[in-house]
Amino acid sequence: MVDRNLGLSRVWATNLPPPRRVHQAGSALHYDETEDVAAIYNQAGDDYAVYADGDPTRLFAFDRLHGYADQRLWALLETKLADLRASGARSVTLLDAGCGPGTWLRRLVTRARAFGFTRITARGFDIAQEQIQQARFLARNLASLPGVNFTFEVADLTDPLPEADASIDITICL
């Protein structure tokens, strides 16, 4: 049986535009990788969430290609949330750098609410506009809940972050 997800990644890779040459320094060519990466994930569109995380309506299924690793990472993140709440924290600030369709941030916000956090600030950013649109769509119900400030925006991981040092409780970058 052929894994549909592996086939999708091959299709995305073969349909990409050729890299753009930015400049030549000595004998090495330098390409604008940022635009190429954005093009890959924009082209993937809605299918990337399924490829990377499975069914977007089953946040905690962890049954995809990297399910075991995702379970282990989730255990660490969930423990961190539980520890923050046990320390008496009632608010939490979350950042997902390179959030894609926002699955990990939606998991964190969902669990933070279950733990009883009353103020949740969550920001995700990614270089691909299509992924940000998908993240906004998938998070629309969570973003409308009282006490939840949920934002997604297009930004480059190589740019300086607007958050002040030590202002984020949990940061993920996958």
Walkthrough of the structure:
The protein is of the alpha/beta class and 174 residues long. It has a domain at 68-172: Vaccinia Virus protein VP39 (Rossmann fold). The protein is built from seven helices and six strands, in the order H-E-E-H-H-H-E-H-E-H-H-E-E. A four-stranded parallel beta sheet has the order 5-4-3-6, covered by helices on one side. Strand 3 (91-97), helix 5 and strand 4 form a beta-alpha-beta unit. It is globular. Mean pLDDT is 81; it is low at 1-31.
Task: Spell out the key features of this protein.
174 residues, disordered N terminus, Rossmann fold, alpha/beta, single chain, 4-stranded parallel sheet, globular
Question: What's the gist of this structure?
Answer:
The protein is α/β, with parallel strands linked by helices and 174 residues long.
The CATH topology of the domain at 68-172 is: Rossmann fold
Q: Give the overall average pLDDT.
A: 81
Number of strands: 6
Biggest pleated-sheet summary:
4 strands, parallel
Low-confidence stretches: 1-31
How are the strands of the biggest sheet laid out side by side?
5-4-3-6
Gross CATH architecture of the domain at 68-172: 3-Layer(aba) Sandwich
**What's the tally of helices?**
7
